[in-house]
């Protein structure tokens, strides 16, 4: 498997994520109550569960949360990529909406400080995971038609996941737990 097909799927995943991200921003601009609801849901489901811990535990929880999300994006390929598509799109809308609400209340610098340090590792991990999921879907279809060995392709995709995605989310979790809070503190 060459890098070319993977790159195409990453571009597709990035386009889907960016489009859904913009949809989230537009939704909040049209109706700020949507953003308020999404922030409340995000706070209840994510922040309350992980933010009250010591930094090391926080890092581990972030890592596990992101690992599960990336695995769902990758293994969602067995559903013809539908789960990968829906999860990536829903996360784009959620992140766009939440960031737009935070931007309107705290400003662009705060949002950049809260997202960029770990986001430069985390977002590529999500996009690559989704791309691998779409490639897995294609491999399964190809296998069904007798054009591809899905088992062989799945092993290769799994190696990419382990060698690229896992290191990215490990670094992202470390940065999100130990560095991002310090940067937020500096700009607050």
TrEMBL record:
Source species, domain of life: Archaea
Keywords: Membrane, Transmembrane, Transmembrane helix
Bilayer-spanning residue ranges: 6-28, 82-102, 109-140, 160-179
Pfam families: SpoIIM (PF01944)
Name assigned to this protein: Stage II sporulation protein M
């Amino acid at each position: 498997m060459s890098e070319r097909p993977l790159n195409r799927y990453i571009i597709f995943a990035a386009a889907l994520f960016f489009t859904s991200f913009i949809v989230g921003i537009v939704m909040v601009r049209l109706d700020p109550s949507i953003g308020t609801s999404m922030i409340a849901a995000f706070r209840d489901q994510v922040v309350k569960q992980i933010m009250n811990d010591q930094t090391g535990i926080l890092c581990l929880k972030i890592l596990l949360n992101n690992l599960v999300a990336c695995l769902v994006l990758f293994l969602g390929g067995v559903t013809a990529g539908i789960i990968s598509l829906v999860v990536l799109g829903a996360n784009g809308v959620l992140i766009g909406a939440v960031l737009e609400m935070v931007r309107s209340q705290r400003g662009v610098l705060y949002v950049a400080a809260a997202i960029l340090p770990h986001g430069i590792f985390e977002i590529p991990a999500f996009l690559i995971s989704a791309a691998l999921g779409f490639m897995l879907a294609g491999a399964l279809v190809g296998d069904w038609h007798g054009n591809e060995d899905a088992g062989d392709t799945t092993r290769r995709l799994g190696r990419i996941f382990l060698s690229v995605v896992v290191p990215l989310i490990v670094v992202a979790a470390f940065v999100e737990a130990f560095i991002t809070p310090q940067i937020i503190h500096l700009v607050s």
